[in-house]
Amino acid sequence: MPSEALAPAALDLAYIRSQFPALSQTINGYPAAFLDGPGGTQVPQRVINAISDYLRHNNANSGGAYATSRNTDAVIAAARAAMADFLHCAADEVVFGANMTSLTFAISRSFGRESGGRDFQRGDEILVTRLDHDANVSPWLALAEDRGVTVRWAEINEADCTLDLADLASKINSKTKLVAVGYASNAVGTINPVKEIIRLAHAAGALAYIDAVHYAAHGLIDVADLDCDFLACSTYKFFGPHMGVLYGKREHLQRLRPYKVRPNTNAIPNCWEWGTLNHECIAGITACVEYLADLGRTAESRAPLDGQPRRLSPHGSDRRAAIEAAYRAIHEHERTLTTHLISGINKIPALKIYGITDPARFDERCGTLAVRVKNQTADTTPLALATKLGDRGIFTWDGNYYALNLTEQLDVEKSGGFLRIGLVHYNTVEEVDRLLAALGEILEA
User: Could you list the residue range(s) of the whole structural domain that residue 352 is in?
Assistant: First the structure.
């Protein structure tokens, strides 16, 4: 199939790519192909501008009785409103932090200081999974160690790297106080049925903590529909600056007691934020969400649903609808790229894909692939492949990406983990073709 026939009409890729300055780089004479999205995506110019403009004009602490401080307060409020639209929650349920890991440790520490009630007494249980990034495992292991809580593990189906839902369900019981699960695997791309897992947790009286760091670039998040208790993500994984964002149900943010300096211990969400926030990056968060909303407005005008154009205004109450439209277009484009990539890798006999490869099940995965050479040598380890690809301007990752329990379970940790290829919406069919050609040449050499 010709490459141009694979590009869906909803996304104007030339326009999209023109907004990302990093995509115009060359490496050793090759155009840079950023297939490293799971480790952090590139940012559009408007995010760079928002960060720079804040530092140029409004660099001040918040809460002051003067113009730049008041402007900083407005920047923070605007970013909360933007992330509330992104997550589909209230603005006072949005907490900013350095990253998802530190925010998750903050919540686990707050659970650990509770006395009495339902929060994590000796004999209680926490359920984590073998598929998760360690940022949604280690905070709960630390809590369990401190409080005498038992940690149980939901196992995986090794054949396709999916959660064993029957095993997971069997380990949720009256002792379970928290179920911690990822929305999507940052290593193999599996999308978990988190809404069903949340339902199972709540039926047993447990809380549900969702790590959406990897999923956020690929799929729409709706915490109201999920009914999760907490959900964490990182904006640098979906075209924004290096920051973490936590959603917490208001009732939990009000009930729990964070470790916090004394002058700011009561009002949510501020009481969950430590020290002076990274105001310039918070300005970039608003620009990131607006980029996605504008992508949705453009895509909707190019490919309206059911032949009926939806007129989405530039700003205001329809920003959530525009974000929903963006993710419809993103899903369509990434599905096309993923199908093309997996089909191509399957034609390279030396490579093995870990995860879902059946096209009929691609709604259960995103465009993140973990591969290895079947008969690996010192020249074809994941690190060796990533290095050779990098020399050709093709950026991929190697290792375990903090999905340590998965690489240990699959017995690949000692031999270098995986080569990870990550697609996002600014990637093209031509970049996939370059990758496939390069892999073929490297493995034939």
Answer: 3-43+325-444
